């Protein structure tokens, strides 16, 4: 059987990929996608911990469901905001949003 | 397999204050559809009614007139209904009531009168209340999102204006980023303890302390990542970068509300997780909890940066944003104190007292900014305060009171809050942090009193628009600030009942 | 998992290659070859494209999609409830009723705001 630490390494790698994406990408949609990657890494962690440590108790699985439902809600609001901004500026580049200094 | 709970295990009566608010908000959402566009004030009144009912229920529960439900737990331990919950409810609802009052005319004159404003504001308030009542990390996470997502939308509520949209975008991207850290932390805590229930975590921590290093590291990193996520919400350094931009761009009525509400929710959850869940997570025998050093270090950085950068700000909203960062530092000091043995309750009381004082003072200060702000969101510079004492003596007096309270001058609410925070920190032997707190409070006097100077000793036209709901909000805030400052025992006697820790 | 259970996966993968390959090869070998321009055209639902394909969709469509995504994902909470319905009893029924009531509130709101009407 695949040991637990392998899942944790994959999750950590995925989380770091997302982290890098958020910090390095300039497109707001790409940043949003990277955030989704981070949340999916969390899901891998949750399900792996559930399977290896408490298979009798469902809370890890249920939490994973909560994570992706919330991620969907967040994405919906985020996309709506991005579209609202795109309509006015024809741009989704985060660095173009510089009315106020970061 | 698992035991199926019965309907009476739900103990839904214990959740009555927040449930009534959620129900009221749903009704408001539907009722608003039938309110014609030119009479959206009706929605505001309905929102006030919904908040009022919930506030009355919370006060009844806090004042021990009646307890709802039997026992402290509802939804099988997911929801905790103790005195801390009641206190958080009262602070959140008072803030929301003031938030609706200051928005009443502001939305109309800035042309953003839409009923959804009040619905979103009430949903956020429910999120804050759920955070204060969290008995499980799932609830912490979902409540945090319920608190955040409406706030993202509210910051962009002034839709045709670019600064508002931009602030919503920044707040959203960084907020979603931070919640990623939060859930990763939760996943690691789940991995270390095998549970997401805070009471079960509290039990599991004893085994972890006695157990192997792997679980200890998992728990430590998990708690650290949760601190990142929640530290972002309360605008603690180094996760504060969004604060000045969002506060400057978002509609001022939203900022008045969210500068307090987001902090109340964030600190309530921090206390639930750190002070209630793992106060005894001690790695060396006799030392304070393993997370204490990090928290007070963050507190020191936050107090220093917030106060020092605020000095050079020339926009009132940016200045108050850095001031709110600084105040997050003071509250974090109280949270850090909870890491010492037996101080969890005292630190929770200090946080409640501080947040109550801060709610009145800060909403009041932003309300004055709303009064002087022009319809196109201009005129929020520090210089807009010039000559206010001559043209609007009462407004200037209220602003002076708020500034003194934010500084922490005796006989104002701010002083009482700082007193209890520093007292808790001294009990926890955090002397260095307390000295930094005292010194930065002195520094903060410079930029707060500069505003008072502008109002009283410089010439200017001092224009302000004060419709009656805004005047009422400022009056309530001023009376609250003064009242808590002159007669602090009214609040502190009540706060003394607050207990947070499991089993002592 | 035992090794011989993996054999089925191997057989399945082999079949997955074989089945599409056979008709393609047979078609090449047996079919008549008479190419003409209309056969070479891009096939799009049998209708020829008018104008560029990179037009923007109505924003109505995107709100519709967002609403769909939300309601679709919420289903994940109903699925475990439906599976374990027999053993859960009144407790779960009560909670699911609250949940569906909340969804209905949202649905009613979107309907009244005209999001569900196709323009």
SSE blueprint:
The complex is a heterotrimer of chains A (102), B (504) and C (119).
Chain A: H1 4-24, H2 28-53, H3 59-89
Helix pairs in contact in A: 1-2, 2-3
Chain B: H1 16-32, H2 41-62, E1 73-74, E2 79-80, H3 83-109, H4 116-132, H5 137-155, H6 162-193, H7 198-210, H8 213-233, H9 242-249, H10 252-277, H11 292-310, H12 316-337, H13 344-372, H14 388-391, H15 393-407, H16 413-427, H17 431-457, H18 468-486, H19 489-495
Antiparallel strand pairs in B: 1-2
Helix pairs in contact in B: 1-2, 1-4, 2-3, 3-4, 3-10, 3-13, 3-18, 4-5, 4-10, 5-6, 5-10, 6-8, 6-9, 7-10, 8-10, 9-12, 10-12, 10-13, 11-12, 11-17, 12-13, 12-16, 12-17, 13-15, 13-16, 13-18, 15-17, 15-18, 16-18
Chain C: H1 3-30, H2 37-40, H3 59-83, H4 85-88, H5 90-112
Helix pairs in contact in C: 3-5
Task: Please summarize what this structure is.
The complex is a heterotrimer of chains A (102), B (504) and C (119). Chain B has 504 residues and is an all-alpha fold.
Features:
heterotrimer; A: 102 residues; mainly alpha; elongated; C: 119 residues; 2 domains; 71% helix; flat
Question: Could you explain how this protein is built, in words?
Answer:
The complex is a heterotrimer of chains A (102), B (504) and C (119). With 102 residues, chain A is mainly alpha-helical. Chain A contains three helices and no strands. In chain A, helix 1 packs antiparallel against helix 2 (28-53) and helix 2 runs antiparallel to helix 3 (59-89). Chain B has 504 residues and is an all-alpha fold. Chain B has one domain (10-495). Chain B has a two-stranded antiparallel ribbon. In chain B, strand 1 and strand 2 (79-80) form a beta hairpin. Chain C is built from five helices and no strands. In chain C, helix 3 (59-83) packs antiparallel against helix 5. The longest helix of chain C has 28 residues, at 3-30.
């Amino acid at each position: 059987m695949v040991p637990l630490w392998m899942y944790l390494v994959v999750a950590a790698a995925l989380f770091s990929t997302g982290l890098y994406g958020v910090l390095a990408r300039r497109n707001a949609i790409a940043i949003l996608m990277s955030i989704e990657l981070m949340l999916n890494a969390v899901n891998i962690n949750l399900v792996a911990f559930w399977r290896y440590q408490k298979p009798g108790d469902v809370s890890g699985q249920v939490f994973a469901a909560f994570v992706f439902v919330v991620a969907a809600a967040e994405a919906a609001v985020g996309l709506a905001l991005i579209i609202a901004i795109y309509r006015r500026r024809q741009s989704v580049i985060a660095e173009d949003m510089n009315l106020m200094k970061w | 397999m698992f035991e199926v709970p019965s309907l009476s295990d739900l103990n839904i009566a214990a959740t009555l204050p927040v449930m009534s608010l959620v129900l009221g908000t749903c009704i408001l959402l539907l009722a608003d559809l039938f309110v014609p566009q030119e009479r959206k004030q009706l929605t505001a009144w309905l929102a006030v009614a919904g908040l009022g009912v919930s506030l009355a229920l919370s006060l009844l529960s806090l004042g021990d007139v009646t307890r709802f439900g039997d026992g402290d737990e509802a939804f099988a331990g997911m929801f905790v209904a103790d005195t801390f919950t009641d206190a958080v409810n009262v602070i959140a609802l008072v803030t929301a009531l003031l938030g609706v009052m200051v928005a009443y005319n502001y939305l109309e004159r800035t042309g953003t009168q839409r009923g959804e404003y009040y619905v979103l504001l009430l949903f956020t308030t429910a999120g804050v209340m759920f955070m204060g009542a969290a008995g499980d990390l799932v609830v912490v996470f979902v409540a945090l999102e319920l608190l955040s997502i409406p706030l993202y939308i509210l910051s962009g509520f002034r839709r045709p204006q670019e600064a508002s949209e931009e602030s919503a975008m920044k707040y959203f991207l960084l907020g979603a980023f931070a919640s990623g850290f939060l859930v990763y932390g939760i996943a690691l805590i789940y991995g270390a303890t095998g549970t997401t229930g805070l009471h079960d975590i509290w039990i599991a921590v004893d085994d972890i302390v006695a157990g192997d290093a792997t679980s200890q590291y998992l728990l430590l990193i998990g708690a650290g990542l949760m601190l990142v996520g929640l530290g972002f919400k309360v605008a603690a350094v180094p996760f504060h970068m969004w604060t000045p931009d969002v506060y400057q761009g978002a509609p001022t009525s939203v900022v008045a509300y969210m500068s307090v509400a987001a902090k109340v929710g964030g600190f309530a959850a921090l206390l639930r997780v750190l002070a209630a869940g793992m106060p005894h997570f001690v790695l060396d025998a006799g030392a304070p909890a393993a997370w204490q050093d990090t928290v007070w270090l963050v507190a020191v950085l936050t107090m220093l940066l917030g106060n020092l950068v605020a000095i050079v700000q020339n926009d009132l909203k940016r200045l108050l944003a850095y001031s709110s960062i600084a105040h997050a530092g003071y509250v974090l000091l109280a949270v850090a104190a909870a890491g010492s043995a037996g101080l969890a309750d005292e630190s929770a009381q200090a946080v409640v007292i501080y947040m109550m004082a801060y709610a009145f003072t800060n909403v009041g200060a932003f309300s004055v900014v709303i009064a002087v702000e022009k319809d196109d969101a201009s005129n929020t510079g520090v210089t807009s305060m010039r000559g206010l004492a001559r043209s609007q003596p009462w407004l200037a007096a209220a602003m002076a009171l708020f500034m003194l309270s934010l500084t922490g001058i005796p006989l104002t609410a701010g002083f009482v809050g700082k007193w209890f925070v520093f007292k808790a920190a001294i009990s926890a032997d955090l002397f260095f942090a307390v000295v930094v707190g005292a010194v930065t409070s002195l520094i903060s006097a410079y930029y707060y009193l500069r505003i008072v100077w502008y109002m009283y000793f410089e010439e200017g036209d001092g224009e302000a628009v004060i419709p009656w709901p805004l005047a009422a909000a400022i009056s309530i805030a001023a009376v609250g600030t003064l009242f808590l400052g002159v007669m602090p025992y009214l609040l502190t006697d009540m706060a003394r009942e607050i207990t947070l820790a499991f089993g002592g | 998992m035992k090794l011989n259970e993996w054999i089925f996966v191997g057989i399945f993968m082999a079949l997955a290659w074989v089945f599409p390959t056979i008709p393609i090869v047979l078609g090449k070998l047996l079919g008549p070859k008479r190419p003409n321009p209309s056969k070479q055209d891009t096939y799009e639902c049998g209708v020829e494209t008018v104008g560029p394909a990179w037009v923007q969709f109505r924003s109505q469509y995107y709100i519709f999609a967002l609403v769909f995504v939300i309601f679709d994902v919420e289903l994940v909470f109903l699925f475990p409830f439906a599976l374990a319905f027999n053993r859960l009893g009144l407790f779960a029924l009560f909670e699911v009723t609250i949940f569906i009531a909340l969804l209905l509130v949202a649905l009613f709101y979107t309907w009244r705001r005209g999001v569900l009407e196709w323009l």
